[in-house]
Structure formats: C-alpha cells, structure tokens
Amino acid sequence: MRTIACRDIAATVAELFQQANWDLPQEVCTALQTALAQETEELPRTVLQTLLENATIAREQRLAMCQDCGLAVVFVELGYECHLDGDLYEAVDAGVREAYAKGYLRKSLLADPLDRSSNTGDNTPAIVHVKLVGGDRVRLHCAPKGGGSENMSALWMLSPSAGREGVIARIVEHVAAAGGKPCPPLVLGVGLGGNFEKAALLAKEALLRPLGQPSPLKEIADLEQEILQRVNATGVGPMGLGGRTTALAVHVERHPCHLASLPLALNVQCHAARHKSAVI
Amino acid sequence: MSTPSRLATPLQIERIEALRAGDTVLLSGEVYTARDAAHQRLLQAIEAGTGLPFSLEGGVIYYCGPAPAPPGHTIGSAGPTSSYRMDPYTPLLHELGLKATIGKGDRGLTVRETCRRYGCLYLIAVGGAGALLAAKVVSAEVVAYEDLGPEAVRRLVVADLPLIVAYDAHGGSVFPGDPPLPSSEGRS
To answer: CA-nearest residue of chain B to A45?
Structure first.
C-alpha cells in the first residue's frame, strides 16, 4: 500500500488545468495545420490560420486560449494499492480553485442552474469520474470543457434496427444541423452501447484519447473513419463557413448493451481539445 | 486574400449597406459585452422603462464573457459566445437602434430578417480565438450588472477587431446552408 498525499493531488490538478487552458496539445495544432493545407477557400483558411495564431499567443503569454475556460472535468484512475490521506473530491476541488484563481481563468459554474447570478465564484465543484485500476499510482486527467460545444452534444436510445448505418446517419445529421455553433473543426466523442448513462460517459472518455489515435479494434477504427469522412462531406467547415474540415477526428468507444437497445451518445468537442494528464 | 473593410462605431448606415455577407471587417470603437443573463436584464429594463446602461443608437453588442485580466493585460481571453441563444432579444434591440451584434455561429431566420429590415449587421469573430481577440481590446470597464460576474455588461474599446460579416443588411448570409430570405417588405 502506498500513501498518496491529497495536497499532491490538489497541486497537480491546479497545474494541469492551467496548462490545459493555455497550451493546446501539439497533435491538435498539427491537425489544424493539416486541415489548413486541405482548405482552398478564403474564409475557412482565415479561420484555421487565426486558430493557429491564437494557440501561439496563448502558449507564449500563458493566456487562456478561449474565454470559456470550461467546466472542470477530472478523470481519476486510482490504483487499488493507493491509500489517500484525505478526501479525493476535496483535493480535486482545491486544485481547481487554485487553477482558476492563479491562472486568471473564467469561472463559469452556476450553483443553481436556474439562477443566473449564482456563480460559485471558483469554478468548483469539479465533475469527477473515478475508475479503480491495478497498481499503486493515481492518474489524473484534467479536461476543461466548454459550454458551446457541450450544448451541441446529444444522446439517443436508438432502435436496434437502426444498425451501423443508422448510427452513422444520426451523428452526421446532428453535426450538420449544429453548423457553426459548437466551433468546428470538432472532435467527436462517440459512446456506442452500454446503457443511458454509460453511453454518455463513454462519449466523454473517447475525447481523452490523443487526437486522431484510432481505436485498437479494427471495426471501430473503420467506423471512426467512415463517420469522419461523412461528417466532413457535409460542408459545414471551420466555424460553419463552409469547407472540408468539419471535424478533425472521431473517437468511438464501444460497450456491450441490452439486446433491446442501441444507446448512442455524441459528445461534441470544439477545436480547443484541451486536456492534460499526469501520474502521481 | 481580400482586404478587410474598416468600420468604426457608432455605425453609419451607408457603411453598413456597403458590406456583404462574407466580407472581412476590422472594427474600431466602443462595443458593449452582453450574454444571456445581461440580455434578460436589458429586456426587463426596456419593459419597465427604467433606462438602459448604455445607448443602443448606432451601437454594437458583443456576445462575450471575458476571462479575468492577468496582470499587465487589459482583459483576459475575450472571444465570442454562441449567438443563437440571444436570438429572442435581438429584434427588439435592433428596432431600438442597435446596429450590430458580434458572436459566433448561425442564428434563426428572424435575426437575418431583422438585419435586413432595420439595416443592421450580424458579425462573427472566430470562436475560440479569445487570446488573439483580447489583444485588440484597448480598454475594458464594467458598466452594469457586476453581480453577474463574467456576464456583466462591459464597455470595451477595440482597435481593428477582426470580424466577418455573417448577415448583411440585404438579407445575405455567409453560412452555406442558409436558404434565401423571402422577398423584402422594405426597410422600416
């Protein structure tokens, strides 16, 4: 059994959320460069150039790349052989509180969803998902999630008769209808199977995968490619201004499901696919 | 690449009418930030006849809730939020003299019709480019609804804020999927 200090968890969370907000992952910048090379029209090119320039300014000045510094989502992989010396949720919230104060990040959380003046003031509480894993380490994955793209996410309990084509069509139609609202080019996290809540969680987890890394399952990797091609054929384009790049990547996570069901969740991520992780 | 048009506040109708959807613009002057909660309060103030915290005449509203300003900065990251959420409020504000809104994403047909009817613009900034856009803000001060935090109304003075005309004053839209507007009933 290894003892992990909650103050170390808090300090790590504080660092990760600040980094995530000003340092766009290199693979996202590379994907934006690739997209730029493929666009021929002026407006989509202008958008992609602006986003790359923005990423550089944010990184150099340690300034939040987007004013929506997100809801603080934390995935914790907790080793069975760890002993925490305090409350994990309090430690995560302490880290979030410090990150959003010290990093001059916008606090976007309302205590009461129906009261617009109830901002919690420190962007807590975080949304924390804990998974127990083998070993004596803790892996923290911090993902600030913006509201504009989250609003365009959806969950459907499809009829099993919808099949593979029904799954693809539902996603493509939904992304086309969302247009420029979720700040394309997007990253699409898809949860296929499970049940109502499992599908949604899978869709969120799918976004944690490094951008563009295909599923290790061949049939799922093929599904990801087909969804990506068809989403990009919609012509929504960067910021909805038309073009070839509506999504940078599609990540699908699959889980067994009830024979009467075909749950499908789509978690839409804007181009600011911000996440950072660390192991303690 | 085409050269952006320069635009200054308060917006003049001749300059507005010369622009077409898809044109790029560099905006300078005063804009006021307002998002969902501030729009609710603006509407309440209009209904109650208690006066607005800023003049709408020739004015520009920026759908933006900036991040806090780090030391040495005028403002934190300051990009646009999704505009469609403010659609219910926009026609009345244009009727009362507001000349342009700035946000991101497509909006309902009513807003496009309203832009044509009152000779107004819907402009878009690049969503997620908050660090770059913040560098165009010369000054920022809260002028109303401070209790709303990031959603308070701020007066920003901007210099060469890079924007794209999304809806012009003639019914045009930059978004490829938008259908043509039904024929005009003429400008009010």
So the answer is: B1
Residue A250 CA to residue A112 CA, distance in Å, equals: 33
Residue-range definition of the domain harbouring residue A120 = 2-20+65-145
Ranges of residues in chain B whose predicted pLDDT is under 70? 1, 184-188
Contact of B74 with chain A, judged by CB distance below 8 Å, is answered with no
**Which residues of chain B does A58 touch, with a Cβ-Cβ cutoff of 8 Å?**
77, 131
Instruction: Flag whether A59 is in a domain.
Output: no
Task: Please list every residue in chain A whose beta carbon sits closer than 8 Å to the beta carbon of residue B81.
Answer: 68, 147-148
CB-based contact (8 Å) between B156 and chain A? no
Residues of A in contact with B104 (CB under 8 A): 148, 180-181, 183, 239
Say whether both A116 and A202 belong to one domain: no
**Location of structure tokens 């990040």:** A105
How many helices (H) and strands (E) chain B has is answered by 5, 7
Residue A142 has pLDDT above 90, yes or no: yes
The CATH number of B5-167, from 3.10.290.10, 2.60.120.470, 3.20.130.10, 3.30.360.10, is: 3.20.130.10
| Residue A150 pLDDT grade (very low, low, confident, very high; cuts 50, 70, 90) | very high
pLDDT in tens, A113-124: 999 889 999 999
CB pairs under 8 A between A and B: 152
Q: Is residue A263 a part of any domain in this protein?
A: yes
Which H, E and C letters describe B36-79, residue by residue? HHHHHHHHHHHHHCCCCCCCCCCCEEECCCCCCCCCCCCCCCCC
Assigned token pair, B162: 């890079």
Q: In what order do the strands lie in the sheet with A138-145?
A: A127-133, A71-79, A138-145, A276-279
**Cα atoms in the 13 Å half-sphere on the side-chain side of B78:** 28
> Chain A residue with minimal CA distance to B83?
A181
* B181: contact with A, CB 8 A cutoff: no
pLDDT band at A170 (very low <50, low <70, confident <90, very high): very high
Interface test with B, best of A42, A46, A67, A149 (most B CBs within 10 A): A67
For this structure, is B39 an active site residue? yes
Give the pLDDT confidence score for residue B104 in this predicted structure.
96
pLDDT-above-90 percentage for chain A: 98
Instruction: Report yes or no: B73 at the A interface, CB cutoff 8 Å.
Output: yes
- A186-216 confidence digits (pLDDT tens): 999 999 999 999 999 999 999 999 998 999 9
Token duo for residue A99: 């990150």
Rounded to two decimals, the pTM is: 0.93
Q: How many domains does chain A have?
A: 2
Q: Is residue A95 part of a domain?
A: yes
CA distance A278 to chain B (A): 25
Question: Both A9 and A133 in a single domain?
Answer: yes
Residue B188 pLDDT: 55
